[in-house]
Amino acid sequence: MVDDKKLYDEKNPSGPVVTRGYKVWVDRSLCIGAATCIAVSEKSFNLDSEAKAVILKTIDEEEIENIIEAAKACPVSAIIIENEKGNRIFPK
């Protein structure tokens, strides 16, 4: 289980959060806890006690390209990313 102090937002552990001008969040109803997002971007994601992906404070240290790759690695496309204009980057 991830320490709450490491979460980007303790009240909304799966986001949305804004990093590098992009809005990122995890659809908890879709997340199956596969953890592929962690394998690709361990600074951005971890799993909580319900085996759902949560967003870490250290996401701001990650390159946006890597966060997008983590979203693409999710087998159920549970990670949603929008640009600063509100346009969906992934999934399209």
Overview of this structure, please?
The protein is of the alpha+beta class and 92 residues long. The chain has a single domain, classed as 2-Layer Sandwich (Alpha-Beta Plaits). Helix content is 16%, strand content 23%. The strands form 2 sheets. Strands 1-2-5-6 form a 4-stranded antiparallel sheet, with helices on one face. A two-stranded antiparallel ribbon has the order 3-4. β3 and β4 form a beta hairpin. The longest helix has 10 residues. The model has no long low-confidence stretch (mean pLDDT 96).
Portion of residues within helices = 10-25%
Alpha-carbon distance between the termini? 31 Å
Strand portion? 15-25%
- Output the structural class: alpha+beta
Total individual domains: 1
Query: What's the overall geometry?
Result: globular
Strand order of the largest sheet: 1-2-5-6
Largest beta-sheet characterization: 4 strands, antiparallel
**CATH C-level class:** Alpha Beta
The number of strands is 6
Average per-residue pLDDT, rounded, comes to 96
Look up the CATH topology. Answer: Alpha-Beta Plaits
